[in-house]
């Protein structure tokens, strides 16, 4: 059904795109799981205990664990952000316990770093941006010397050709959209100043790596339409 603020991840083991959650135009969240096989959508209804209904969460496919990882998001109640970690194994969701984890939040971004074999999350707190990595067992907060400023709605993708995570845009405050580009090499964030750059987009840009053309591709849309 029509929804916004969903999250998707490509399961390369099963060759399917996995979608979870999202919300209606009036803010009602979903907790359904769908899969796209290149031809059709299939609703997966066999899981008796899926994650709670949410939107604004983030997902990434862990190629080492061969699982889709989900973190955070929020429900329809104001200020109720989740701080839970889940894995999708192709049949059901499993909630994972960890000694530490990022603070509850929504509007963050995650992607999988194939070089270092970790899921990387760039999130936000009241103090600023935070970088966390997931190794399949636990979350670890990283302490890079430099990092992007606090933001939400940004986009990240792993550039397989160069072994770097690329970050673009986001929103650092009311009507303060960013058009900056950063790269993560496994330990450090580096600001990139390309000769030509996309325009500022309202926290709805998405990035993906095109393995055929060996390039990261950006797409942006208006956040106020649900289609």
Written overview of the protein:
The chain is an all-beta fold. 0% of the residues lie in helices and 41% in strands. The protein is built from no helices and 18 strands. The chain has strands spanning 7-11, 16-20, 33-36, 41-44, 58-62, 67-71, 85-88, 93-96, 109-113, 118-124, 129-134, 139-141, 155-159, 164-171, 177-184, 189-192, 206-210, 215-219. The strands form five sheets. It has a four-stranded antiparallel sheet, with no helix packed on it. It has a four-stranded antiparallel sheet with strand order 5-6-7-8, with no helix packed on it. β1 and β2 (16-20) form a beta hairpin. The chain is globular. The chain starts with 6 loop residues before the first strand and ends in an 8-residue tail after the last strand.
User: What structural class do the secondary elements suggest?
Assistant: mainly beta
Mean pLDDT, to the nearest integer, reads 90
- State the end-to-end distance: 9 Å
Annotation field: number of helices: 0
Q: Order of strands side by side in the largest beta sheet?
A: 1-2-3-4
Low-confidence stretches: none
Largest sheet: 4 strands, antiparallel
Q: Indicate the proportion of strand residues.
A: 35-45%
* Element-by-element helix/strand order: EEEEEEEEEEEEEEEEEE
